[in-house]
Amino acid sequence: MIRQAELNDVSRIAEILIFTKRMTYRPIFRDDKVSFGEMQVLPLAENYRLHPELLSRIWVYDEEFVKGLITLQTLTDDGCKMLQIEELYVDVFFHNEKIGSKLLSFAENMAKEQKSKTIFLWVLEKNEHARAFYSRHGFEPTTDRQPQEGTAEYIVKYQKKV
User: Fold this and answer.
1) Contact by Cβ (8 Å): 79, 116
2) Which of 24, 70, 148, 159 would be a feasible disulfide site paired with 120, CB 3.0-4.6 Å?
3) Per residue in 76-90, pLDDT tens?
4) Which range marks the domain in which residue 113 is found?
């Protein structure tokens, strides 16, 4: 059910990213110029088609069609491997079906296979739903907090030892 993203997934990936981000972030940022002007499905899908190497870090939850995705990157800090979750989104029509939990478990298993010591992510401070989700899965907020680029909002680092 979870597999690496392929070129024929780009339309669905773009659709999930744009619509889920609109639903999640519009109430926080209240910037329709970004939500409906800058954020568009077609240009994002075309960017993936032009740069298929971007798909190498994306894993999709596929159950007859793509319902969710997770973007992962392995980093090294002082010789210690860490796995970063860059994005984890599930199509809003499939919320509450444990897809996000399955994608998160997949990432944790990948971290263990890579012998990563830590798995971490940055989450928007005002995104209480996401913060609660990660906390339920054993992630803890750190003291690391920084401005979300181009906005007045902040992001907080969450991590989990694996």
Assistant:
1) no
2) 159
3) 887 889 999 999 999
4) 2-161
